[in-house]
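Q: Here's a chain of 472 amino acids. Please give me its 3D structure as tokens.
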Amino acid sequence: MSKPEEKKISRRTYLQVAGGTVVGLAVGGALGYLAKPPEVRTVISTLTETVTVTGTAPPPPPPPAAAEIRIGGPLSLTGAMSAFGQGLNFGHLKAVEDINKLGGVNVGGRKLPIKYIAYDDASDPTKAASLASQLILADKVDALVHGNGPPVTTGPICVTADRYKVPYLMGSPLEPWWAGGPYKYAWSILFRIGMPIPSGDPRAGMPGYSILDIFFALTDKYRAQTNEKVALIAADDADGRGWYGAFPPALVDKGYEPLGTDRNLGLYPPGTTDFSSMIREWRDNKCEILWGNLPGPDFGIAWRQCAELGYRPKIAIAARAALFYEDVSAWGGNLPWGVGVEIWWDPSYPYKGIGDTTPASLAERWYTETGKRLNRNIAFGYSAVQILADAFERAGTLDKEAVNNAIANTDGMFMTGRIKFIPDTHDSPTPLTYGQWVKTDNPWVWELPIVLSFFPDLKPTHDPIFPLPPLT
């Protein structure tokens, strides 16, 4: 075979060829990295010969290791639900502080600190959803965190979490919250209104995990001393509707007489400032028991009008409205005296924090740093971060699907007690006790002690108040 003719190349041609080769290598290298072909064939041109090099492409470099865990909280720091959000924010911050003080979370053998980002949704459901999106898309959080609040704002965040497949550790009463689902990435650590816990769960059949258990604990205790007629009041929002729907059938099943539920007498539109027509019906029908679920400021208006119109039941239970000192103290006079509400957590509970933090020390930190009376939501904010940290550690990765699966398999003791999620409803019902506001000689005037409990280790610290004392 004859030798191929060798051609001479001018300097101009050489530069064009060589330049094209360099560009070709750069682009080809980039495309090869993205496509990851099993074999790379690169043609290198020189002045005198063409050489073909065949080999296996090197594996792509691993992505940079995460330097931190990022969690975000869209919270109601202002507006009608600000007491919920302020307590949560404090609890989140204290848990992050405690975790980072110990070096962070062990994720796959590396200690990662937590970076916490919170935004104020101003108690606006639309803003809550948009801020959740911002945290996910702009701030690149690994999880969303909440802890306890009405489904008015938590519901839209759950929808957002599911859309982007980001774990969300939160808390809302089960029935109205889950009615907006089901959800795959949202997990609730609050209570149920009345739905039984399924068999097979260690809490099944035990009283104290639902609102109806707690409300009936006091109502049944003094039933013989009432006429069994019940007035109901609830805000016509995502939270109130769920409660208002559950109360009448439960009361009727036990032989009580709820008034006007066939025409939704006590279901009022948010923003109402005149409750006089329904109050007159309660008074004229001699309803000696009042159950409700509504914001604190709304109940304050209605309760003052009850006093003005001469309506004073023997029992008054105001879920949501009577949870926080700031709300009840704003009602004025002696109006808070004896009003009852569920208690989700107390500094006396024998639960577990991070490091040397206990329920009592967490409550002391709140009082020392804010100067305010106890906000029980600090425990739910703390517990939510604590549970997330545990899930990241057990997952061994920041992969959101793996973390979500780790949350599903949680079973341990945290600041709010034992957390073990029920697969079909993504909730871990919290134990409830019952409290009533009492007057004290302290500068803060009002306190909410436990008066009834189903749990031997969650002890009452005050006798129940019955009937409500006359207003003076």
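Q: Can you summarize the key feature?
A: Residues 104 and 113 are 4 Å apart (CA to CA).
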